[in-house]
Amino acid sequence: MQIRVLGCSGSIAAGCRTTAFLLDDDVLIDAGTGVGDLTLDELAGIQDILLTHSHLDHVLGVPLLADSVMRRRTGRPPIRVHGLPATLDALRQHLFNGQIWPDFTRLPSAERPILTLHPFDTGEVLNLGARRVEVLPAQHTVPAVGFAVLASQGAWVFTGDTGPNEALWQRLAQMPVAHLVIETAFRNDEHRLAALSRHLHPSALGQELARLQDGSTVWITHIKPGELDTVMSEITALAPRHSVQALSAGQRLTLT
């Protein structure tokens, strides 16, 4: 299995794309602006989209992808969009409502739509072909999750957007973690804003990583444009015992 980083920024600017990962060539994990770097053929090959939560920087690519590939997928099964019930309800009410965007769960016809919506629960394991993806708990301002792509040599874990998260560490204590992709959206001097918006800042990240088992590589995601050097220097100052690096768009991680 391979994970391709399409976007990992906390917002947009030149060279900065919001959260999206491609698992192999047919599963999207979140659908931020990074989805736009896929070719039309690659977009048409997507079979499943897994959403951590309903915020725009993580779901923007879903309606645009549907519009782009509808004609190329004529006669093929719909693209399955997976999320918490609250996430899927938000898509129905606020995105696919005919005002913000057409309802592609009923287009090109109600009988053969380009998208179908599939709810999951925290703790559920999704079987996507031969791949298994566990839904992990997250703590955010809207109902949210993370994901663990399970592999024999250790999981690739993505926290999604989250503040301090005791339930996550209880689960990860039972799971070999090869790669941890964890957000750090704010600098330390913005700790009040981080707490209000349920994101992490470097000091809070350090407390979270103290719970992580040895042998895991840590990748930092969701840093705001222009803040990379400051956030990473504050993380480095924590002297974490793990290998900690900033994630970047275009990276590919192989899971075995």
TrEMBL record:
Gene3D superfamilies: Ribonuclease Z/Hydroxyacylglutathione hydrolase-like. Coiled coil: none annotated. It holds the Pfam family Lactamase_B_2. GO terms for molecular function: 3',5'-cyclic-nucleotide phosphodiesterase activity. Residues 17-222 form the Metallo-beta-lactamase domain. It is an enzyme of class 3 (hydrolase). Its EC number is 3.1.4.17. InterPro entries: Metallo-B-lactamas (IPR001279), Pdiesterase2 (IPR000396), RibonucZ/Hydroxyglut_hydro (IPR036866). It comes from the Bacteria. PROSITE patterns: PROKAR_LIPOPROTEIN. Keywords: Hydrolase. This is 3',5'-cyclic-nucleotide phosphodiesterase.
